[in-house]
From TrEMBL:
Keyword field contains Membrane: yes
Protein name: Cation efflux system protein CzcD
Domain of life: Bacteria
Gene name of the record: czcD
Endpoints of the signal sequence: none
Organism from which the protein derives: Micromonospora lupini str. Lupac 08
Alphabetic keyword roster: Ion transport, Membrane, Transmembrane, Transmembrane helix, Transport
Family to which the UniProt record says this protein belongs: Belongs to the cation diffusion facilitator (CDF) transporter (TC 2.A.4) family. SLC30A subfamily.
One Pfam family in the UniProt entry: ZT_dimer
Length: 305
């Protein structure tokens, strides 16, 4: 089973590694536009543009952490002291992204609320030009990250940030056009608040998913009772206990269990059938299964945790 375990981990790591070139390209595009938007926000006095630049900063930081996590994961896979490599770095990076993005969103909302009582005039020409450039940059980054977001929680975090920033750029463009046409200066803080409100629920969901993995909760799409009942139906198994199911990192579900065999059952046949059931019914590729003879109940020294 060890060879299959290593092969599965390597395949997921390689899948993430294949997207490294796309990550670097997205990183370069967004980093350049982040600087442009930041400078333009102070020049124009636009809070909406500043919020978009702040959001873009978290995009750049998030993609940078994704790149660092992918590099560290690949370098650590041969370390005998790291029996699971550094796959959890990906989850930690995703959680950090969620925290940072939430902080930016809260700051923007608070600052925007303060401006409703005293709206500031902004230079709409430069604001509009930079917002259009930001939109184009986010479209490029969105296309680069879309495929990888299906395979990695870390890449999903960067993808969600770019998606939110893309919509934010549309909001800044709309605010600039509205102010130019009507002199309604409240459009700038209003769009800033809208960006913040849009960001928060998505980042909280990402953070929640990362926390579930870090506390080793069972994957949401798997019912532990269903796994237990399926293992109990394996020919030659009379009882299942000490069952644990958790996620190591994106796409890596892991299980461990103790199986009590019926008298006369073949160990090899039971193990093969149990592993096949876990793989085909629940997509659990790595399982550590302890076989116990039915004549010696409790011999495993079951641990209650």
């Amino acid at each position: 089973m060890g060879a299959g375990h290593d092969h599965h981990h390597a395949s997921v790591a390689n899948a993430a590694h294949q997207h490294r070139g796309r990550l670097w390209a997205a990183f370069g595009v967004l980093a350049t536009l982040m600087v442009v938007e930041g400078v333009a926000a102070f020049h124009t006095g636009s809070l909406a543009l500043l919020s978009d630049a702040g959001h873009m900063f978290t995009d750049v930081l998030g993609i940078g952490m994704a790149l660092a996590a992918i590099t560290a994961t690949r370098r650590a896979t041969g370390d005998p002291q790291r029996t699971f490599g550094l796959y959890r770095l990906e989850v930690l990076a995703a959680l950090a992204n969620a925290v940072l993005l939430s902080g930016v969103a809260v700051y923007v909302v608070i600052e925007a609320i303060g401006r409703f009582g005293d709206p500031h005039e902004v230079l709409t020409g430069p604001m509009l030009a930079v917002a259009v450039l930001g939109l184009l940059a986010n479209l490029v980054a969105f296309a680069l990250l879309r495929a990888g977001a299906r395979e990695s929680i870390n890449l999903q975090g960067a993808y969600l940030e770019v998606l939110g920033d893309l919509l934010g750029s549309l909001g800044v463009i709309g605010a600039a056009v509205l102010i130019t046409a009507t002199d309604w200066w409240w459009a700038d803080p209003l769009v800033a608040v809208a960006i913040g409100v849009f960001i928060l629920p998505r980042t909280w969901r990402l953070g929640r998913a990362a926390v579930r993995i870090l506390v080793q909760a069972a994957p949401e799409h798997l019912q532990v009772t269903a796994v237990h009942d399926r293992l109990a139906t394996v020919p030659g198994v009379v009882e299942v206990h000490d069952l644990h199911v958790w996620t190591l990192t994106s796409g890596m579900e892991v299980a461990s269990a103790h199986l009590i065999m019926a008298p006369g059952a073949e160990v090899g046949a039971v193990l093969t059938a149990a592993r096949t059931a876990l793989r085909e019914d629940f997509r659990i590729e790595h399982a550590t299964l302890q076989i116990e003879p039915g004549a010696a109940p409790g011999a495993c020294g079951s641990i209650e945790w």
